[in-house]
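Q: What does the assembly look like in three dimensions?
Context provided by user:
Components: four
Sequences:
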Amino acid sequence: MQPTAHAHRRRTSGRSVTAADVLDAAKTLFALRGYHGTSLKHVAALLEIRTPSLYNHMESKSGLLRDIVMETLADVRHEFEGVLATTATPAGQLAEATRVYALHHATHRREALIVSHETRHLPEPDLGQAQEMRRDHERRFRQIILDGAASGDFSVASPKLASFAIREMCVSVARWFREDGSFTPDDVAEEYARQALKLVGSKP
Amino acid sequence: MQPTAHAHRRRTSGRSVTAADVLDAAKTLFALRGYHGTSLKHVAALLEIRTPSLYNHMESKSGLLRDIVMETLADVRHEFEGVLATTATPAGQLAEATRVYALHHATHRREALIVSHETRHLPEPDLGQAQEMRRDHERRFRQIILDGAASGDFSVASPKLASFAIREMCVSVARWFREDGSFTPDDVAEEYARQALKLVGSKP
DNA sequence: CACACTAACTAACGCCCGTTAGTTCGTCGT
DNA sequence: ACGACGAACTAACGGGCGTTAGTTAGTGTG
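A: Here is the predicted structure of the complete assembly.
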């Protein structure tokens, strides 16, 4: 997230900082400089208040990280469940799961980068819970490909490797996507969904 | 790099720590906990010496990071140039470039994770130089796909997106690959090379 | 109009960081 | 046998960190 120096959305009202403002500032800075590379002084400076004032709106620095990570993982799970509920065929499910996952990483870049890079810094038991949520998504995503391979809808050498490749290629969108670049989030999401079907050799 | 707690290779001789030992310990810890999440005390503890003794073998903490990043990027460039020198067709070049890039990320996981996540913490001018080397690889990799699209060897909707997808899927190998898992580095590298050709709709 | 509440502030805490200085001690070449 | 060297050590530095305590001022409510 180095290059695009996009302005940070300041507090909504004219006066007082809210908990949402603090979370938003933390998202920007954790994504840009990393959790340990960001001090609460940086967060406070972005909000134009002094460091101790942050404690009116948050529990602790690690609490900020926990809230960002857990909320994001819950969003992803919710989106994934929406896909399974509305689509039945393996090809449809894989295309949709890929599309919403890629879309999420293009439209929530800061949160996605934080989940990818900073989750490891969570104290237990939050770390274990976060890892379990990620593994759950991993498992269910791979299951779609296994289903497609079993039914003959897909022709894929290694469902496991294909699953890794597709998911990680979506995750990486957060790393290179630029809001002012040549693609809209929907462009990327739809092309990635097509690429996913190619990767697993989906029969037409 | 959280799960596999693989043992750290200790100094080669029976007695004295070398500069290579320090670099090796730093690779392990920077990859595991991140640059700012690792203190020199951690590095020293892994080598079973006191913190100030490190300065007999290194310039500074940021110097360690610089050496790791620059050496890794130079390796990648060298490997890529070897591919271009020995292969002529777009399909051959793409397959080989993908294979060696994926292989590198499976066999040099620590270094790859550090380049991906910690390069941003380099002080200038090292940061600019590192970014330029990465962009150079990016450009030359994409050029292979553009060549293949121009010659009709490939049939691809967006060469730019395909290039992002393929490179990032290789980079991500460092994130999920386990030395004690079901795949050898060569398994992954060769399957990824095939997947790359599928992604760009390689004709023959 | 007084009261409670909230969100800002300053001051201070204990701790850990990267780094430097100065010292000891074993090894090896002369 | 001795002197130089290299690599380890202890002690100490200045500074930044996350966090707590205690205080002030402004806002909205009875």
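Follow-up: The first helix of chain B runs from residue 19 to 33.
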